[in-house]
Design brief:
Oligomer: single chain
Shape: globular
Number of strands: 15
Structural class: alpha/beta
Largest sheet: 6 strands, mixed
Distance between the termini: 76 Å
Length: 379
């Protein structure tokens, strides 16, 4: 009798354990991308602990902005924690490196990094991968439009010497050529560099009307400060990779007048009332600032929040087909993410498809200026 009771108890415990949904997260909470990864980590703590009546466990690891560590973390989350989905990582190089692991183990992955290469071109591996940041192509278009509207005729580029910087150059240069903008410089720097004087002097010698910096987080401030120090008077553009307050702090007065595209969440309070993203973005801002203080919001935390919204929308559908912890559930979750339609989020409105694992349109971007050390919606 005791053995039968024990077996029944163990079976019940096993059933309860099976009911938990495990979400693996690897973020760059330390290292060069820490200013991006920290608000993402803070946001994971705000995500719901139950969805559709099922307990959600978030297993969060720090990859220290290192590609090798991001891959190790992904393997560990899948093999040891047996996660149903992976969120991460913060940077494009890390996210690209994680794709093979996620696909090989048939585990859905929601990247928080920007490059279109993470989800394009669609293939057998990328069918497992989704992402929440806007594509560099989308944001490049916004920058080009701003340049042509402000009489920019020639432009130079300086970006990270990694997949992020290269992705931005590829997209921006293609569009610039179509719009008849003259490209007069193309330089690179490392995220850990302490000087870019040589590259900046080359750019200045070309006398561009504007310069685009293809960087992310606080390292993107280095070329901007150097350009200002050397007396550059033209327009300086940054990417949505700098949309956080640590960048403003590090760049200081040298940021004044900078123009960049970003997700609507960064200026949620400034959006018109009929903007379809305003409600969802404002909800995130309210919850984040209630914990971390007014003005603490960043676009990067918003990417993690939107990953949570995607899961909140997809998990109920997946649960109708399979139990958490199984291959069938991971496949059902993948299918449900791909079927996301008309989901308002902090950065835009998601409409996924088998060929589009971002699903954003023009509603996912706004242009902002940096004025008096703050983000201002461009009119």
């Amino acid at each position: 009798m005791k053995q039968k009771l024990l077996a029944t108890l163990l079976a019940a415990l096993a059933a309860n354990a099976l009911a938990d949904i495990n979400v693996g997260v690897t973020l760059s909470a330390t290292g060069p991308a820490a200013s991006l990864g920290i608000p993402e980590k803070n946001t994971i703590e705000l995500l719901p602990k139950t969805i559709a009546g099922q307990k959600i466990n978030y297993i969060v690891l720090d990859d220290a902005s290192d590609t090798t560590t991001a891959v190790k973390n992904t393997k560990k989350l899948i093999s040891e924690s047996r996660v149903d989905v992976v969120i991460g990582s913060t940077t494009t190089p890390n996210a690209l490196a994680m794709i093979d692991v996620a696909a090989e183990n048939e585990t859905p992955m929601i990247a928080l990094a920007a490059s279109a290469r993470i989800v394009e071109p669609m293939d057998d591996k990328r069918r497992w991968v989704f992402k929440t940041p806007q594509n560099d192509a989308q944001m490049s278009t916004a920058i080009i439009e701003h340049m042509t509207s402000n009489n920019v005729k020639s432009v130079a580029y300086i970006g990270f010497s990694d997949a992020y910087g290269e992705g931005w150059w590829n997209e921006f240069s293609k569009l610039a050529e179509v719009r008849k903008l003259k490209l007069v410089g193309n330089e690179r720097f490392n995220r850990t560099d302490t000087s870019v004087t040589g590259q900046v002097l080359k750019l200045l010698a070309a006398k561009p009307d504007a310069i685009l910096i293809g960087g992310a987080g606080t390292p993107a401030a280095l070329p901007q400060k150097s350009l200002k120090e050397k007396g550059f008077k033209g327009l300086i553009y940054q990417t949505h990779g700098v949309a956080n307050n640590d960048f403003l702090r590090v760049c200081g007065k040298d940021c004044e007048g900078t123009v960049l595209p970003t997700g609507p969440v960064l200026v949620a309070a400034q959006l018109p009332a009929d903007n379809p993203v305003k409600k969802a973005a404002s909800e995130y801002v309210s919850k984040y600032e209630a914990v971390h203080g007014k003005g603490s919001i960043s676009a990067f935390g918003g990417y993690a929040w939107d990953a949570g919204l995607l899961l909140g929308n997809a998990i109920p559908a997946a649960l109708k087909k399979a139990q958490p912890g199984s291959r069938e559930f991971r496949l059902a979750l993948r299918d449900a993410l791909e079927a996301t339609r008309n989901l308002p989020a902090a950065h835009g409105v998601f409409n996924m498809s088998p060929t589009d694992h971002l699903g954003f349109d023009q509603r996912a971007r706004v242009m902002v200026n940096i004025q008096d050390g703050a983000w201002k919606l461009a009119k």
